[in-house]
Design goal:
Number of domains of chain B: 2
Distance between the termini of chain B: 37 Å
CATH class of the largest domain in chain B: Alpha Beta
CATH topology of the largest domain in chain B: Rossmann fold
Strand order of the largest sheet of chain B: 6-7-8-3-9-10
Largest sheet of chain A: 2 strands, antiparallel
Oligomer: heterodimer
Structural class of chain B: alpha/beta
Shape of chain B: elongated
Number of helices of chain B: 11
Order of helices and strands of chain B: EEEHEEHEHHHEHEHEEHEHEEHEH
């Protein structure tokens, strides 16, 4: 055997290995099939729910059905992402440590950052597959009207960024902790805090604000992916005088729980605040920051000594923060004055 | 000849604990070097330092005359490392496992295919190439792990306890494999608790305890150095008393060795064990001549070398 060339332009070996393991057998295809069937069933159920509302006197036009279905299906997808992404990544590094293969990987020329990148891409690629496989199901809402293709794109952008952020949170915990069980618990806890605390604050704000019944400040909801989703899928908010089972949002009653602070009622009627812009911006910053720290956590030695890659991350983060600052007129939306 | 491995005052501390203290090690190219030491002696720390997985607290490592830098990246090219507790990806097939590590070393498609086939052949796993790794026996997994350390054709192999957990047949197979690798020009450093095996296969050994090298060199030199005197086993035809008398009353000012102790074997009363204080081949031959000329009928006469286990136990007892 001759000496080996160590410069390679080949695909990341971790991605190939992970995909080989993950896509083997019938399981991944069965999960995909079950997911699509469940999504179709959920959409069908929502459709019938809305038809029943019409029977009880609620106004139900075709565009409203389209918007309701759109909201419900998007909620199903984001739930799936929030619960699946950390599960896919929280064992990425810790499982290598647990099965004693991490040291063998570190003995190769593969850089720890490449291991991290390969793990993230491999884990998220399956979630992306689920998201893209759902596109035909989503396209059904276009038949009912009420939704512009641009809204669909915005939802998919939010879903992808939420998947990357939740995946990076799992990856960070996996790099930080030695055991997968600990990493899973901590990453789910972090996501629960991210969603739960903002949702709780949004729900309770009106009761404890002074004077009482003040609208929730949108800043409280920036990091909640559900609120961001509401701000996209609520194309036509229900007016406060409407009787509608879904409350502020067409579709499922549950969705209205996330609408507090997103839909504001001003003198000129209800206004939907585009919270999703701030969510996307802050999720990107959070993702880069967590990934940067993770690249140091996975190092076996000289963990916190600055490296050249840190310059790249610092520049990227500076660009993102600078861009966020410069575009604050776009993403920082002020609520209209209350009625 | 250039040394494959050379360390100078190599020290590694974990907090206040010194795992390795001023290790000066030289391993000649093409040799099989065996590390002997009790648990916690510093064997694994030494191998991990050599593999570039740990950073020395102080001291220097040279691999094929190339100094290991702080990042230890040179070791990745020069060294194939097999840890003591190795992991395998259960859900990969045998060929995929090697293919994965070959990709990690950046081998192109053609080289990868050839290397995987060659290595499967070398470790005798070609018939199992499409099996899942989890279905292999422990010995096969051990051979596969050894093969993974060879994908980039490194000149130095570091094997931490490669024979642990193997049955006798698998150990013999591993020993043969290591001999083959040595014939291929590899320098092999291995640690083991099975000392007799090290003695059979290693050209050099080093005994390490409490992070310090006690003795290092060729197996015979180490044995000679530790054993001091030598031990003779003599079988007598007829009564042993005259032989004991002849041994205890050796003429002064002769070329005969100084006899420290003569005792009769507990299980065979016709066998004598003789401890010599300062024996050479010449003095041992002179002692045999003395017995024969004294009219003693000797049916067996040979020097017994102390095995490595005894030497190791004696040495570590002294150290403790």
């Amino acid at each position: 055997m001759k000496n080996v060339q160590f410069i390679s332009l080949q695909p990341n070996p971790i991605i190939i290995k992970e995909l080989r393991i993950r896509m083997r057998g019938i399981r991944p295809y069965a999960i995909l099939t079950i997911f699509l069937i469940a999504l179709v069933a959920a959409g069908y159920g929502m459709y019938h729910l809305m038809l029943r509302q019409a029977l009880f006197g609620g106004s139900m036009l075709s565009f409203q059905v389209g918007q309701g279905l759109f909201s419900g299906l998007a909620l199903c997808e984001i739930c799936l992402i929030v619960f699946l992404a950390p599960a896919m990544t929280s064992g990425a590094i810790s499982s290598e440590r647990e099965q004693l293969t991490y040291e063998m990987l570190l003995a190769t020329p593969l850089r720890p950052a490449s291991i991290l990148w390969g793990k993230l891409v491999a884990a998220l690629s399956y979630i992306f597959l689920l998201i893209f496989a759902a596109v035909p199901v989503f396209s059904v809402v276009l038949m009912f009207g009420g939704i512009a293709p641009w809204d669909l794109l915005k939802v998919f952008l939010l879903l992808l960024i939420t998947a990357i952020t939740c995946g990076t949170i799992g990856l960070f915990c996996s790099s930080l902790l030695r055991r997968t069980s600990q990493a899973t618990v901590i990453s789910y806890s972090a996501i629960l805090v991210l969603i739960g605390s903002t949702m709780m604050a949004g729900s309770l704000w009106s009761y404890f604000s002074g004077p009482i019944w003040q609208p929730v400040p949108p800043e409280l909801l920036y990091l909640n992916p559900f609120s961001a989703l509401i701000s996209i899928v609520t194309v036509t908010p229900a007016t406060s005088t409407d009787f509608f089972f879904g409350g502020d949002v067409f579709g499922l009653p549950l969705l209205s729980q996330f609408a507090a602070g997103v839909v504001h009622y001003g003198p000129n009627g209800p206004v939907v605040l585009p919270i999703y812009r701030a969510t996307i911006v802050f999720y990107l910053i959070l993702t880069v920051a967590l990934y940067w720290i993770s690249t140091h956590l996975v190092l076996p030695r000289r963990r916190w000594i600055p490296r050249w890659s840190d310059v790249t991350f610092a520049v990227l983060l500076a660009v993102l923060i600078g861009g966020t600052w410069l575009t604050h007129d776009w993403w920082r939306v002020l609520p209209p004055p209350s009625i | 000849m250039t040394n494959a491995i050379e360390t100078t005052n190599l020290t590694r501390r974990y907090g206040k604990t010194t795992a390795l203290a001023n290790l000066n090690l030289s391993v000649a190219q093409g040799s099989i070097y065996g590390f002997i030491g009790p648990n916690g002696a510093g064997k694994t720390t030494t191998l991990r330092l050599l593999a570039g997985l740990l950073e020395p607290s102080s001291g220097e490592i040279r691999l094929l005359n190339q100094k290991l830098s702080g990042s230890g990246t040179e070791a990745q090219r020069l060294v194939g490392y097999m840890p003591d507790f190795f992991g395998v990806y259960d859900d990969l097939r045998v060929w995929e496992y090697l293919d994965f590590f070959a990709r990690c070393y950046g081998l192109d498609h053609a080289r990868r295919r050839t290397t995987v086939e060659q290595l499967l052949d070398l470790v005798d796993l070609t018939p199992r190439r499409n099996d899942f790794v989890q279905n292999l026996s422990r010995g096969m997994q051990q051979r596969l792990c050894l093969a993974h350390a060879l994908v980039h054709d490194p000149p130095i192999l570091l094997l931490d306890e490669p024979a642990s957990g193997l049955d006798p047949r698998a150990r013999v197979e591993l020993r043969e494999l290591l001999r083959t690798l040595r014939e291929m020009g590899k320098t092999i450093v291995l640690s083991s608790h099975i000392l007799s095996e090290l003695a059979e296969i290693c050209t050099e050994i080093g005994i390490i305890d409490c992070g310090q090298m006690i003795v290092s060199g060729s197996v015979d030199a180490v044995r000679q150095q530790l054993q001091g005197g030598s031990h003779l086993r003599i079988r007598i035809l007829g009564a042993v008393e005259p032989a004991v008398e002849a041994l205890q009353n050796t003429p002064a000012a002769s070329r005969l060795p100084a006899i420290a102790e003569v005792r009769v074997d507990s299980s065979d009363e016709r066998v004598l064990h003789v401890e010599l204080a300062n024996a050479t081949e010449e003095t041992q031959a002179a002692l045999l001549t003395h017995l024969v000329t004294s009219g003693i009928l000797v049916s067996e006469y040979h020097a017994q070398t102390e095995n490595l286990e005894n030497l190791f136990l004696r040495l570590t007892e002294v150290m403790s």
